[in-house]
Amino acid sequence: MPGAAVTEEDRLDAKAAGQVMRRAARTMGPYRARLWLALGLLVTFTLCTIAGPYLVRYGIDHGIRDGDGGALDLAVGAYVAVAMVGFFVNRAQIVVISQVGEGFLRDMRNRVFDHLMRLSMPFYDREKAGVVVSRMTSDIDSMQELVQQGLLQFVSSILLIVLTLVLLALTSWELLLVVAIPMPFVILASIRFQRDSNQAYLTVRDRIGLMLSHLQEGLSGVRVIQAYGRETVETDRFAHRNKTLYRAHMRSVWIQAWYLPVIELAGTGATALVVFVGGRLVIEDSLTVGTVALFVLSLSNLFDPVQQLSQLFNQVQSGGAGLKKLYELLDTDVDVPEAPDAVALPAAGAIAVAGVGFAYRPDLDPVLRDVDLTVATGERLALVGPTGAGKSTLAKLVARYYDPTDGTVSFGGVDLRRATSDSLRQRIAVVPQEGFLFNGTIRDNVRVARAEASDEEVEAALDALGVRDRFEALPEGLETEVRERGSRLSAGEKQLVSMARAALADPTVLVLDEATSSLDPGTEAVVEDAVERLMEGRTTIVIAHRLSTAARADRVGVVDDGRLVELGSHDELLALEGGRYRALYAAWTAGLAATA
């Protein structure tokens, strides 16, 4: 059943639709010449379509009735010629319109993806991942359906109705009035069909979503299902959801089942009326047989497009709503923009955090309050504290994933808000807790840090961490395909690749989110050795999950409830009576003793 469901919030009023169309027209600038060509082809094809009945009229009235063989030959020859022209023009218009539409979608995908890659972390905190992905999937898909077939049918249907009405009005206004008799029923039926089918499509889409959700849940939890013998229960639940989807589909079928016969009946009734009234007029010698034939043959050019338009309405709405959402996404401002007068950061310098406060959203409580901190060049600082205290947030501000709500973060005396993006990423690198790998080879994933790096530079980065031999020992060496999200490598190997990226980038400042607690002892030792090598000669801020890491740092900062409550060396903080670090360290060592 054609069409796509749209919700109430997807519906575009006249003003919003006009804005979207005007903006789309501006975006179509590079395709303007092809659009004019497509319009010319569409008009030509429509003229060929309505010319057929007119030539039949000419052949009947001037050839058969008058016994003029020349006129009959002319009519037949012209009919064949018009049909051939229409065949080739139709093929050409499909190709040209598809080129324009697919080119527009290709450019839109590129623009949206490029914009998504440049949007700052606050955007991804606000938006759900599924919503963002739907912009590039369901919204683009809804437009693709429109581009591939809907747009051509929509424009050609309107053009065919208009030109057919003009031809019939110029031929016989009396028979045109006869044709108009069933049209109110067709229009009313089409309005009702559009309303009912839209609701039916929406229900089907919801039922599909529920069934797919249950399917995904069942596949993800199949071990638990089998462990507790819930196979029958889950199968029955799935069968119930499948039954509701079946009913929703059948509802849409019933709507189509009453609508299509109404159109067929209206067309049949109009044909009967034209033959009856037209035949009377022919008997009275006030109309020709050819004119009656023209009207009978032209009726399909009126009723078929009306049916197509009613079925295309949802598709047009859905495509317009999808385009509106994409434009809204493209209009989303970067939360952490580059200043117009941005300057390059110096090659080296201290990190200064002055009076920093931060909240992820204005309506949420601050995550950090009044934080003051200076990290000297080459110093290693470990941030410790309970979960949710603000350690990671402070590190993200240093990397300028976010801008502080209050205060400043600077490097070498330059506020990070005034730094160029390129120099910021060259000076400060972040190694996250979980090394994310892209589909590709190990070499490709290391080169993410610097796309132009040579093979020798990639290998030197791995050598700097002492892990090149580990990866070259694999059957395909550095050309090993890691597969999606690095599924072919272990957790430790993924972290090593992530650290090799940082080594290749060769930054001045490292922000490390320590993640060795889930590794086996052998792998943990390799990763910790790589971390030590990576930190050599660099200013380093480590989010320490193990306090043994904090003990090796030059200084330790204790973050609690959004504040930097203690700052000093490991020994200094352990000597503080009643100190937070001392309590954390005691609890940690007690936990180690209990598990020994």
TrEMBL record:
Record has Transport as a keyword = yes
Please give the Gene Ontology molecular function terms for this protein.
ABC-type transporter activity; ATP binding; ATP hydrolysis activity; ATPase-coupled lipid transmembrane transporter activity
The annotated topology with respect to the bilayer is: Multi-pass membrane protein
Task: Return the PANTHER family for the record.
Answer: ATP-BINDING CASSETTE SUB-FAMILY B, ATP-BINDING CASSETTE SUB-FAMILY B MEMBER 6
Keywords, sorted A to Z: ATP-binding, Cell inner membrane, Cell membrane, Membrane, Nucleotide-binding, Transmembrane, Transmembrane helix, Transport
Q: Where in the cell is it found?
A: Cell membrane
**ABC transporter domain spans which residues?**
351-586
Q: Which domain of life is it from?
A: Bacteria
Q: Where is the ABC transmembrane type-1 domain?
A: 36-318
* Keyword S-adenosyl-L-methionine in record: no
Q: Which CDD domains match?
A: ABC_6TM_Rv0194_D2_like
Family annotation (Pfam families): ABC_membrane, ABC_tran
Record protein name field: ABC transporter ATP-binding protein
Matches recorded under InterPro entries:
AAA+_ATPase, ABC1_TM_dom, ABC1_TM_sf, ABC_transporter-like_ATP-bd, ABC_transporter-like_CS, P-loop_NTPase, Type_1_exporter
One cellular component term from this protein's GO annotations in UniProt:
plasma membrane
Segments traversing the membrane:
35-56, 76-101, 151-169, 175-193, 257-281
